Amino acid sequence: MLDQLKRMAVLAAVVRHGSFAAAARQLRTSTSAVSQQVRALEKDMGVTLLHRSTRKLSLTPAGERFHAGCAAMVAAAEAAQSQLAQLRDAPEGELRIAMTVGFGRRIGPALAPLLAAHPGLQLHLRVEDGFTDLVAHRIDLAIRFGRLPDSTWVARRIGTLHTTLYAAPAYLARHGVPATTEALRQADWLMLQDGTDQPRRLPGSELTVRPRCTSNNQLTLQQLCEAGLGLAALGDEDVAEAVAAGRLLRVDAELPLPELPVWALTPQRDAQPAKVRHAIAALEAHLAEPSR
């Protein structure tokens, strides 16, 4: 079948270009090879498709009818190639992105210019702090932070999340600023984890604490922190508005908090669709801005 389809494409090229020699140049093969392909096609079909003379080629009545199908086949293949090239080179279609709740506020400013420049691009966001089945939800691009679990997805670092220790003025008024290791150990901690029964070593230090409140949602932790329930390590940009409004204060404790890498995860390393490549570039540029 594949050989037959190839011969049909060769016949269409001969008719389009008007001669075996011209078709051979377009197909980057020899004139004799083109002639052999057409003869093999006529043998398989059991009918003469071309009238041959020293001056020109012309289709037989059967050849005219058969060539219409061959030309339609080639046109469909060329259209499919064109559509694929458009998907590869121009951002369009639905872009499905998975991210944490906290990062959701950054997507608008990061991708607004891309969406404005490409009306054919649509955006679907799956926002949750828990586990997301990236395959089941047909995710094109996932944004993750910190240490990544083993996965078949390809990770590319696109930025850094700067975290700082914060507390509400009311909490600090009741408990004071924790100035010693023991004060930090005894503080009420708000942490991103499942349950309060497990002590946890703070990243970047040897200090182990037992959280007072936990959540699987970073935004919820910020709200608990603003309510005066304890200390939380939060992203500086995420809490900028709350700090400016006086709802949160930066806690200058002797506790180095590590910077968290921001990762873009994709299903494959090569041949990324244009919508994914452009989205990664836009996010990377946004995160690289000085205020990020």
Q: Can you walk me through this structure?
A:
Helices cover 42% and strands 21% of the residues. With 292 residues, it is an alpha/beta fold. The strands form five sheets. Strands 4-3-5-14-6 form a five-stranded mixed β-sheet, with helices on one face. Helix 1 packs across helix 4. The model has no long low-confidence stretch (mean pLDDT 87).
Question: In percent, how much strand structure appears in the residues?
Answer: 15-25%
- End-to-end Cα distance, whole Å, is 57 Å
Q: Helices and strands: which structural class?
A: alpha/beta
Mean pLDDT across all residues, rounded? 87
Pattern of helices and strands: HHHEEHEHEEEEHHEEEEHEHEEH
What is the makeup of the main sheet? 5 strands, mixed
Multimerization status? single chain
Extract low-pLDDT stretches.
none
What best-fitting shape do the alpha-carbon axes yield?
A: rod-shaped
Count of runs of 4 or more consecutive helical residues: 10
Strand order of the largest sheet: 4-3-5-14-6
> What is the rounded Rg?
32 Å
List keywords for this structure.
292 residues, alpha/beta, five-stranded mixed sheet, three-stranded antiparallel sheet
Brief digest:
42% of the residues lie in helices and 21% in strands. The chain has helices spanning 2-17, 20-27, 31-45, 61-89, 104-117, 169-175, 181-186, 218-226, 240-244, 274-288; strands at 50-52, 57-59, 93-99, 121-127, 141-145, 154-161, 163-167, 190-192, 200-201, 208-209, 213-215, 232-235, 249-250, 260-266. The chain starts with a helix and ends with a helix.
